[in-house]
């Protein structure tokens, strides 16, 4: 079985027809350009993942723009997760049609039925880091115990083991908790964002892939300040026999 999917991240959308003014990058136009590229280059993709920072300022109007763009321009399954720029209440209002500020996390079977997706909401621990709260850790432990299929895990903040928080702050605060719960499971890929760059590394035995933002890239300075760059893209991913091949697509 071969499963093909697109992993994009950090689209940082605004309301439709937003006046960009001083904002350097027109992220709405760039997102639409990326979606256009899917149709011309990746019509064979089975689904789309977007790993957080869906909107830049958490606005209802930004989520409405995302929802309508996906409904009008992309007719395959889409799976979303929330990042530190997102607003749970406004997201839930638009996408789930409910008034709630609960975190957005779930497990779903993926197309072709031989893999499943677990998505976690890493929220905002501080300006750089995310954290998976106790409610989700408990749910993850119970849910994972009943899954025998290979799992793709999606969360906004990239998890690391053994990387000092003082040396690199742009990560998940409690990565060890996630690893301890999942270490005996078949995790075929962990898909993250937040760093606005395409990196691949391992969390223990599990491969982790981050996708570039579709709006802008980021360079990191030693003092943790960031500089926005023109480096943007997404990942086209092929899962075959438990191995994931990533093609980084620049545009
Ligand atoms: Fe971002
Ligand atoms: Fe982020």
Short key terms for the protein model shown above:
globular; 6-stranded mixed beta sheet; alpha/beta; binds fe (ii) ion; 5-stranded mixed beta sheet; single chain; Purple Acid Phosphatase, chain A, domain 2; 5 helices
CATH topology: Purple Acid Phosphatase, chain A, domain 2
Task: Please give the order of strands in the largest beta sheet.
Answer: 4-5-6-7-9-8
Gap from first CA to last CA? 29 Å
The succession of helices and strands, N to C, reads: EHEHEHEEHEHEEEEEEE
Task: Summarize the main sheet.
Answer: 6 strands, mixed
Unreliable stretches (pLDDT < 50, length at least 5) are: none
Strand proportion:
25-35%
Ions, cofactors and other bound molecules? fe (ii) ion
Our count of domains comes out at 1
Total strands: 13
- CATH C-level: Alpha Beta
Amount of helix:
10-25%
- How many helices? 5
Class by helix and strand content? alpha/beta
Average pLDDT, rounded to a whole number, is: 95
